[in-house]
Amino acid sequence: MDNHDRAERIIAHGMKNGDSPARITKHLADYGLLAEDLPEPCIYPDTGEHEWHMDDGYVGLEDGIIHVIHDETDEDWEPEELDPDPGELRFSNTTKGRETAYAILAACDLKDTQDD
Predict the structure, then answer these.
(1) Alpha-carbon distance 48 to 70, whole Å?
(2) Does residue 108 sit in helix, strand or coil?
(3) Rounded-to-integer distance, Cα 17 and Cα 20, Å
(4) Mind listing the pLDDT tens digit for each residue in 59-92?
(5) How many angstroms separate the Cα of 76 from the Cα of each of 60, 72, 82?
(6) Which candidate, 51, 83, 80, 47, places its Cα nearest to that of 68?
(7) In the chain, at which residue ranges do the beta strands (DSSP E only) sit?
(8) What does R_g of the chain's alpha carbons equal in angstroms?
């Protein structure tokens, strides 16, 4: 059963019981079937670059390229050129970027179950 099937069953069950849309929405959220709101980017007016900051890196969009930087070494240096660094992912194709993001989310979900 995939997420669409799960959502369909929850909605059908809620409608059968006369639940309000708010209650059905809460059930969907409780079962992890609603996506979290996406974070807002930091926008740099001088370059037009958008960055989403994280504790150990950032995701950036500049000149049509998505950069994913993750570094847990606490080294504070930036590359002078736009050559990819070790630990950096770059995407010019949004389908590939989403595919990678979904794979990372799936791996995080699995790791969460293993860490419990």
Answers:
(1) 21
(2) helix
(3) 9
(4) 888 888 888 887 666 555 555 555 556 667 888 8
(5) 17, 10, 17
(6) 51
(7) 42-43, 50-54, 57-62, 65-70, 88-91
(8) 19
